[in-house]
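Quick one, tokens below. Sequence please?
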């Protein structure tokens, strides 16, 4: 990486051309237009994996779930039972194709044509690599990694997926949401001029906590509570707020050159919350001098806000996941308001478009690139707040700091470990910066 610079890092990304899909081209595939059953493996059988499986089964194509894999048998059994109740005719998962354990993904991938990757994001790079190596199309949830070595792996594999003409869709579903598509197309066409500033938010009350059980090893406890450990989650600025950060990059058509910010554990400070912060506020500076402000927090009992707004030389825009999109000109006159009537569910639409392309024998989607770059933006934001420094893109992409365990086993020790009081070490800005970047 010593000679790997920003230009190298960005030169192949599809966002440079402002696109979310590529021009379709024929697949080197056995699929004949809508006639063959597409075999799907689900890797990661929690709530998101089950939801993604339903979306795939409801995509309108001839699909069967033929393999399932999870580190935990109870997760797999629950997902299988729920899917079997409604989709028995589309489920072909005998016990011999139910795989449990850290290496379960390898066997499941071999059984399928398309792989759904919905484990905690720390595992995404190695699972993605295995799927593309095996020649499979992929749907993978965001974020696509939790550290910079993981990002480099995903980009390396993304290039191989393009070479093999394997479709890859990433679960940044706003890219498949009609109000975002319509509004951002108008922005890219110049409706409000050049975007010079923006604000993006994911402020909410936080997520679940799963109490520690006496019989659990440290590895199992952290896996069960994956949201609170960076090697699994990346912190919520990466795992959750990546949606809004991705919108900023999409609107700008580029990525920030530097990020600075602040964050802390202000309210969720107990041992149940692992090592992550409960609030972040960052400024993303782009090479044209524009700045997008980003805010995310997990404060219970406070005002929730999940939306984006941008100001431009000829107007402004407001966007939200609630199917809202409004553009105004420089005088405040409304020039576009999105009509949400009849808009498809974006979670479902991701799968509708992916499986339609596969059924038609088309190579159409290379989402892994912008998924990796927006994930990287969130990671740089985390590093800026953890260290209390301005982190440039150039500096970040040189980092070889991995936060992943050396190996995966139930008796292995992940990073970090709790002290005698059950509390985990938490980043303090200005201290031990070398641990993070």
């Amino acid at each position: 990486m010593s000679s790997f610079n920003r230009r190298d890092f960005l030169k192949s990304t599809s966002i440079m051309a402002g696109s979310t899909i590529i021009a379709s081209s024929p697949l080197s595939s056995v699929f004949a237009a809508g006639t063959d059953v597409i075999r799907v493996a689900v890797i990661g059988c929690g709530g998101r994996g089950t939801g993604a499986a339903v979306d795939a089964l409801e995509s309108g194509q001839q699909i069967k779930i033929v393999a399932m894999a999870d580190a935990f048998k109870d997760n797999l059994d629950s997902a299988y039972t729920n899917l079997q109740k409604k989709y028995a005719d589309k489920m072909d998962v005998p016990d011999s194709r139910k795989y449990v354990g850290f290496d379960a993904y390898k066997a499941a991938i071999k059984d399928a044509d398309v792989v759904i990757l919905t484990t905690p994001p720390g595992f995404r790079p190695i699972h993605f690599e295995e799927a593309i190596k095996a020649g499979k199309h992929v749907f993978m949830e965001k974020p696509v990694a939790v550290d910079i070595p993981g990002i480099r792996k995903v980009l390396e594999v993304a290039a191989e997926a393009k070479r093999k003409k394997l479709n890859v869709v990433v679960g940044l579903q706003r890219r498949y949401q009609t109000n975002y598509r319509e509004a951002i197309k108008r922005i890219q066409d110049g409706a409000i001029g050049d975007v010079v500033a923006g604000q993006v938010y994911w402020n909410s009350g936080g997520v679940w906590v799963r109490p520690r059980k006496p019989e659990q090893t440290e590895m199992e406890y952290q896996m069960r509570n994956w949201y609170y450990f960076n090697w699994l989650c990346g912190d919520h600025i990466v795992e959750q707020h990546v949606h809004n950060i991705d919108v900023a990059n999409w609107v700008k058509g580029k990525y920030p050159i530097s990020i600075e910010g602040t964050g802390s554990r202000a309210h969720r400070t107990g041992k149940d919350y692992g090592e992550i912060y409960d609030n972040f506020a960052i400024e993303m500076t782009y090479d044209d001098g524009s700045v997008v402000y980003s805010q995310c927090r997990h404060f219970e009992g406070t005002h929730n806000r999940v939306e984006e707004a941008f100001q431009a030389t000829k107007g402004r825009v407001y966007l939200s996941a609630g199917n809202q999109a409004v553009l105004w000109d420089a005088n405040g006159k409304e020039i576009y308001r999105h009509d949400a009537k009849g808009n498809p569910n974006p979670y479902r639409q991701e799968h509708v478009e992916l499986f339609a392309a596969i059924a038609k024998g088309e190579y159409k989607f290379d989402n892994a690139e912008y998924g990796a770059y927006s994930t990287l933006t969130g990671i740089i934001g985390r590093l800026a707040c953890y260290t209390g420094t301005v982190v440039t893109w150039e500096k970040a992409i040189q980092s070889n700091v991995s936060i992943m365990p050396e190996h995966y086993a139930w008796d292995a020790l992940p990073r970090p470990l709790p002290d005698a009081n059950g509390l985990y070490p938490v980043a303090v800005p200005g201290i031990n910066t070398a641990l993070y970047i």
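The CA atoms of residues 227 and 233 lie 5 Å apart. Confidence is low (pLDDT under 50) at residues 11-20, 28-35.
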